[in-house]
Amino acid sequence: VLLQASGGGLVQPGGSLRLSCEVWGFTLDDYVLGWFRQAPGKEREGVSCFKNHDDNTYYEDSVKGRFLMSRDNYVNTVYLQMNNLKPEDTAVYYCATCGIDYGTYWGQGTQVTVSS
Asked: What phi and psi values does residue 24 have, to the nearest 5 degrees?
């Protein structure tokens, strides 16, 4: 199993990034998937999570209205569109199983840095 995250980088405040997580070893219907992040000196927190294998999605309060999670079953990939990025969004972002499947699989992180 491999959860391969990509798309991180350096962006100015107000900018956008789209993270991708390509999944190998299972289909998107097999597990609930989401995104987590960990900023320096802080605990890891959940950012978004598909709920119960349907399209309802949980978003952490600080990203509601700015981040949008989506999925493409044909390429077995989940995405996190991040708009209006703020310096406090700076963190390593991880794709992982979440919700009822929390802790089953973790991907490697991708660094997102929001700075002018």
From this structure: -120, 135
